[in-house]
Amino acid sequence: FNSLNHDMTLAEFKFIWYMEYSHRMWGRVVGLAYILPAAYFWRRGWLSRPLKGCVLALCGLVCFQGLLGWYMVKSGLEEKPDSYDIPRVSQYRLAAHLGSALLLYSASLWTGLSLLLPRHKLPETHQLLRLRQYAHGTTALIFLTALSGAFVAGLDAGLVYNSFPKMGERWIPDDLLAFSPVLRNIFENPTTVQFDHRILGIASVTAVTALYLFSRKIPLPRRARMAVTSLLAVACMQ
After folding, report:
1. Where does a domain end: 89, 116, 143?
2. What is the dihedral of CA 17, 23, 28, 34, to 10 degrees?
3. What is the largest CA-CA distance in the chain?
4. pLDDT in tens, 165-210
5. 3-state SS string for 113-145
6. Where do transmembrane segments lie in this chain (predicted)?
7. How many domains are contained in the chain?
8. pTM for the complete prediction?
9. Are the C-beta atoms of 34 and 59 separated by less than 8 Å?
């Protein structure tokens, strides 16, 4: 308000305040939804030894996620006397907060499905092994693409170019490597950040499509077939 938003009304401030407040309260509800049932099941003796390790790791990750969120928001409230830009949180902390949330969600889903659905006993053929390795590689690529999206959001890089597939009139923009040293461009140059996100997004859709086509050559159980098909549908929609 002091440096930029002089004309902000109380109603406008309340809107962003309640958004932040709701996000924090929702995060605390998620934490209680993890910790309270976990403590109850633990006390009742319903958890096996390996599952206790998973539960402790998940509960620890929930707490870490909350602390990381606070650390991220703190960066947006620090005084920057030499800057009159829009106040924003650090793109590094934003990416870390999003990344830990994705890890928490994926680990929770994996643990839950492992308990609910019996594992298929499939013959370990060379094709199946390759499919599993390719699926893991695709997962890593999608995770990296999502993290690059956090840098786009943190730097407002989506506002730099609004044309596709070209960026403006060029395939490769002139200011792609404008910062020095060169490595800074990947994380701090809005043009490079948007360019990288586009490339990673296209690569992710291509990898998912290739994974689907490769899976068609292998006899898979119905559940695995549905998973691969759903992955392709969601990738196209995204």
Report:
1. 116
2. 180
3. 67
4. 999 889 999 889 989 899 999 999 999 999 999 999 999 999 999 9
5. HHHHCCCCCCCCCHHHHHHHHHHHHHHHHHHHH
6. 25-42, 54-73, 93-117, 138-161, 197-215
7. 2
8. 0.86
9. yes
